[in-house]
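Notebook, student rotation project (T.W.).
Task set for the rotation: take a protein with a known small-molecule partner, predict the structure of the complex, and write up what can be learned from the model alone. Partner molecule chosen: nicotinamide-adenine-dinucleotide. Sequence and SMILES entered below by T.W., checked by me.
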Amino acid sequence: MRVFITGAAGFIGSSLVDRYLELGHTVVGYDNFSTGQESFLEGAAKNPRFQLVRADLGEFETLRAAMRGADLVLHLAANADVRFGTDHPRRDLEQNTIFTWNVAECARLEKVPRIGFSSTGSVYGEAAVIPTPEDCPMPVQTSLYGASKLAAEGILQAYSEGFGIQVFIFRFVSILGERYTHGHVFDFVKRLGTDPTHLHILGNGLQRKSYLYIQDCLDAIVLAVDKAEGKTNVFNLGTDEYCELNDSVRYICGRLGVQPEFSYSGGDRGWIGDNPFIWLECSRIRALGWKPKLTIRAAVERTVDYLVSSPELLHARD
Ligand SMILES: NC(=O)c1ccc[n+]([C@@H]2O[C@H](COP(=O)([O-])OP(=O)(O)OC[C@H]3O[C@@H](n4cnc5c(N)ncnc54)[C@H](O)[C@@H]3O)[C@@H](O)[C@H]2O)c1
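Predicted structure of the complex:
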């Protein structure tokens, strides 16, 4: 199978590139390296079944040509940071919604039969039902990121209905593990590296969050694409547990062997759009036979170990 992956140099995208190469497929990666890392593709670059196209999703004809002949598109490229949406009100719309339309339209023109899309648990806003199932009502969007992803889901569903493209939508919780480059574990490890005596935490530390280990996430994507048969298939991806932010801070500090004093910005949200409680109900993907292998604690600890062993990454976005 020829798999076309956008965001191929990113945390999740590059891991997916490696996974599909390991499975014996041909992979074409597409990335503009805005947040992607050359080093993440070092292994793939040595594989004759891998090809990289360095370009932006806004370059429509380049995107279309790169996608030609693909059996499956996995669309990961995005502005992946839920924070700062209100500082850049156009960014999520352009990067996450309009460029998803570009991907869908190129897939239609090139007759690609299947598209997988990395959405997010943020589309539920502050969900009324927890753990949150895929068919939960979504009355209020609380972040421009979540809103842009939900709009992108809608476009893909309409392409599925209108043009017969089979669509897989994955609503992830926060993903952790090797190649992780953004999020609270990254920020805390970086700041504790500079000052192990003090840690400032956004919110009151009681925010409840769910996390998933990268290899568990990849297992789910590969399985769903293989097995799900609907026109549009929507899957929550997360573990069946959650933890408080204070718990994950404890895991991080324990792993680093530091005992900082904590200060809190206060309030039950770290920033506008921060969801005080994310916990997704994942029986739909479990029904296909998927089961995550790592607990949240183990995933946090592996991420800390990875970051400590990759100091160049901690400063890559300075
Ligand atoms: N990491 C998470 O916890 C998480 C959670 C939920 C959803 N997601 C979604 O998963 C996807 C991957 O996230 P990630 O954590 O790997 O992020 P990432 O920033 O590491 O990867 C995104 C990749 O896309 C590339 N890219 C961005 N804009 C582009 C453009 N216009 N043209 C071409 N390439 C572009 C970047 O260079 C980068 O390599 C995103 O769609 C994100 O919204 C991630």
